[in-house]
């Protein structure tokens, strides 16, 4: 089985304040709590937590191999408005397909984040495969 790399880019709505972005990323957020001081790299902590909350339907164990993300730091100016990027690796196309099409933790995340975005872009690839 060839691994699949899932790359996700988000552009948050510009009218969202830092607190609203934190609330979008942390459903249990309460204004005035420590979450108000969440550093920018933790704005999308919910996306990163999918690595542990997405469970394989048969084994009931986490199946995402790796997950990382952060705020755009490019100096090239070619981000197209995207502000945050994430890279998620799966062991197989089947695992990626389950994640995108059926995983309840992922579906919940998508439903909660979409209203807060201008747009999202997603690209999946198999490392080293160009045909």
TrEMBL record:
Transmembrane segments: none
Protein name: Stress-response A/B barrel domain-containing protein
Pfam families to which the protein is assigned, alphabetical: Dabb (PF07876)
SUPFAM superfamilies: Dimeric alpha+beta barrel
Domain Stress-response A/B barrel: 4-125
SMART domains per the UniProt record, alphabetical: Dabb (SM00886)
Family matches, as InterPro entries: Dabb, Dimeric_a/b-barrel, HS1/DABB1-like
PROSITE patterns, A to Z: S_R_A_B_BARREL (PS51502)
Source domain of life: Eukaryota
Subunit relationships: Homodimer.
Organism, scientific name: Ophiocordyceps unilateralis
